[in-house]
Amino acid sequence: MSRRPASLSRRLGDGAGIPFMGSLNPKSRASPFLSVGLVLVGAFLIIGYIYSAPGRSHAALSRLEGDVSCSAEINQALPYLKKAYGDGMHKLLHIGPDSCAVVSKLSKEEDIEAWGLEPYDLDDSDANCKSLIRKGVVRVADIKFPLPYRSNSFSLVIVSDALDYLSPKYLNKTLPELARVSSDGFLILSGYPGQRRVKVAEMSKFGRPAKLRSSSWWIRFFVETRLEENEVATKKFEMAAAKKGYQSTCQIFHMKSLS
After folding, report:
1. What does the mean pLDDT of the chain come to?
2. InterPro entries, from UniProt (predicted)?
3. Phi-psi region of 72 (alpha: psi -120 to 50; beta: other; left: phi over 0)
4. Nearby residues of 185 by Cβ (< 8 Å), 6 or more positions away
């Protein structure tokens, strides 16, 4: 959905962006101090480019580091989601890892009643998360099976960092469930292909590595499963984000609920 910023490192690699590079004699041996200086200049140029536009710093740094959390991205996208959905966000369900943290942040918003569903076991949850689970605000359930909620229980459902671990076999079952329990639509936040490396911790917790799929793959899958994009919400979100120069680190798909 969103476009990645152009890479400055490619321009730096050929020497065009580094001052005084043309004046160096290729046959002479560069001093260690000069080499260090050139590296520092290049680093400063990259950092300056990253922070040159509002909303770009977080996205660009995340892609450079290769460590992206779509659950953390929800807080960044919240102002634009409010523009897109308005009163449709009054009762919201978040599904995904770190759901306790997401719900805690969303609950601070006066006009949002936030609930959560953690799709994986919480072995190392903190006191706040245990409290939310004890109160029933956050549940722990396997999303490969029917969700433990009645139809239209929530105005909006947001799922992040969870569908990337499901095979198409289970996506066929889970996506209709997201549409069933929501009344005003659901959002999918998914990573870009090649965005993250598989970690050993992920394998032990989720049982399989993340499958980061392209936007074209998702669109084909939506068509095959007869799920419709919420074009009105998509346009409102993109217009609000463009005004502030916001660029998401994740793919965001706005989908309709079951009619």
Report:
1. 79
2. CGR2/3 (IPR044689), SAM-dependent_MTases_sf (IPR029063)
3. alpha
4. 85, 88, 156, 157, 230, 233, 254, 255, 256, 257
Q: How many CA atoms lie within 13 A of 24 on its CB side?
A: 15
Query: pLDDT tens across 111-120, in order?
Result: 999 999 999 8
CA 150 – CA 259 distance, rounded (Å): 15
Please answer whether residues 191 and 251 qualify as being in contact, where contact means their C-beta atoms are separated by less than 8 angstroms: yes
Please check whether residue 105 is in contact with residue 94, taking contact to mean a CB–CB distance below 8 angstroms: no
Two tokens, residue 25: 């004699």
Q: How far apart are CA 84 and CA 218, in angstroms?
A: 21
How many residues make up the chain in this entry? 259
Which residue type sits at 220?
R
Cα–Cα distance, 242 to 189 (Å, whole number): 18
| Residue 117: burial class (beta carbons within 10 Å; 0-12, 13-18, 19+) | buried
Query: Residue 120 half-sphere exposure, CB side, CA atoms within 13 Å?
Result: 21
Query: What DSSP element (H or E) covers 252?
Result: strand 251-255
Distance between CA atoms of 82 and 156, rounded to whole angstroms? 11
Cα radius of gyration (the chain): 22
99-146 per-position pLDDT tens digit: 999 999 999 998 999 999 999 877 777 899 999 999 999 999 999 999
Do residues 178 and 89 make contact, with C-beta atoms less than 8 angstroms apart?
no
CA-to-CA dists, residue 135 to 102, 128, 132, angstroms: 16, 11, 5
Give the per-residue pLDDT at 221. 95
CA distance 71 to 117: 12
Q: Tokens 């890479």 belong to which residue?
A: 7
